[in-house]
Amino acid sequence: MKQNLFQSPIGRLRITAFLEGVSFLILLGIAVPLKYFAAMPTAVKVPGMIHGILFILFVFTLIDVKISHKWSLAKSGMAFVSALLPFGTFVLDARVLKKEMNTN
Fold first, then answer.
1. pLDDT (0 to 100) of residue 6
2. What is the C-alpha separation between 47 and 78, in angstroms, rounded?
3. Could you state, in order of their start, the residue ranges of all structural domains in the chain?
């Protein structure tokens, strides 16, 4: 039976990772170029704040998964680093989180 994403720590991490990844790409692909190439310094304010909030939420959900699923420090660290790289959270979801979700 398929589990609702909101009902498990891994599911919540998958959702948060997706949202954080999208916000990061919007920030890097739209807001930052507008700031530097179109002389619109305020273009990063709202997307930057949204991305910051989502990043913090990602860290908290990652801590929840580390504790509840007894992830190693290396696995948790790899997941954290994925949030620092463009497209990293999407790779994390495809290679780790989706498999974890299906095994539980």
1. 82
2. 25
3. 5-98
